[in-house]
Inverse folding.
C-alpha cells in the first residue's frame, strides 16, 4: 500500500514539472482525482491501467494545451468523456474573468460525473449533453479554441470543427503515434495552417494545431 501511495506522489510531482499550470490548482485536482477514482468503480471513465499515472497521463497531458496556447480562454471540448482535456482546462481557467470551457458529452453518466467535478472544483465549465453535431452550433459564436483527445481520427475532427476553423477558431487536438498517418489522410493542409507540437507526456504523441491564420 505504501508503495502505491509513493508512486502517486511521484506521479503528481512529475506532472507538476511537465505542466506548471497545474500547480496553482493542486487542491482542485486532488478533488478531481478523488471523484474520478470513486466514479471509476461504476463507470469506465479511463483505462484502469492509467490510474496510477493519473496526474501525468491525464492531468498534465491535458494541461499542456494551456501551456502552449495561453491566450485561448474560450474552448469547446468534443466528446469530453472523463474531462480530458476540457475539464483540466476549465480548472486552470477558473480565475480568468470571462473564460469558459464547453464540454460536449453524449453519455448521461459521464456528463453527470463532469457536472460533479465542475461543481466541486469551481471550474469554468459548462456541460452539454448531446451529439456534437447538434450541440456545437449552439455555442459556436463564443469560441476561440476547439479541442479533443482520444475521440476520432483527424478527418472526422476537422469535419466537426470545419465551420469553426474557417472563422479562425484554433483547433488543438491531442494525438497518439498514428498522428502522421491521420494528417496524411486529411485535406487540412489545403485550407489551414498546421503546427505539430511534441507532446510533453508521450514521446510518440503530438499536439496538432490548425488555424486559418495563427497570427490573427
Amino acid at each position: 500500500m505504501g508503495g502505491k501511495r509513493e508512486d502517486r506522489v511521484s506521479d503528481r510531482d512529475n506532472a507538476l514539472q511537465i505542466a506548471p499550470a497545474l500547480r496553482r490548482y493542486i487542491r482542485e485536482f486532488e478533488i478531481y482525482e478523488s471523484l474520478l477514482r470513486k466514479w471509476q468503480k461504476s463507470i469506465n471513465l479511463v483505462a484502469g491501467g492509467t490510474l496510477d499515472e493519473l496526474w501525468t497521463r491525464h492531468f498534465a497531458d491535458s494541461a499542456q494545451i494551456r501551456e502552449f496556447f495561453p491566450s485561448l480562454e474560450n474552448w469547446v471540448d468534443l466528446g469530453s468523456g472523463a474531462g480530458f482535456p476540457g475539464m483540466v482546462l476549465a480548472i486552470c481557467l477558473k480565475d480568468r474573468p470571462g473564460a469558459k470551457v464547453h464540454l460536449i458529452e453524449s453519455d448521461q453518466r459521464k456528463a453527470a460525473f463532469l457536472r460533479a467535478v465542475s461543481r466541486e472544483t469551481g471550474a469554468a465549465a459548462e456541460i452539454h449533453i448531446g451529439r456534437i453535431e447538434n450541440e456545437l452550433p449552439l455555442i459556436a459564436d463564443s469560441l476561440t479554441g476547439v479541442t479533443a483527445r482520444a475521440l476520432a481520427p483527424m478527418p472526422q475532427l476537422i469535419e466537426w470543427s470545419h465551420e469553426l476553423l474557417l472563422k479562425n477558431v484554433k483547433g488543438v487536438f491531442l494525438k497518439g503515434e498514428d498522428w502522421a498517418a491521420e494528417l496524411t489522410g486529411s485535406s487540412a493542409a489545403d485550407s489551414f495552417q498546421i503546427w505539430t507540437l511534441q507532446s510533453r507526456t508521450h514521446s510518440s504523441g503530438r499536439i496538432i494545431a490548425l488555424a486559418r491564420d495563427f497570427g490573427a
In short: Residues 2-18 form the longest helix (17 residues). The chain has a mean pLDDT of 93.
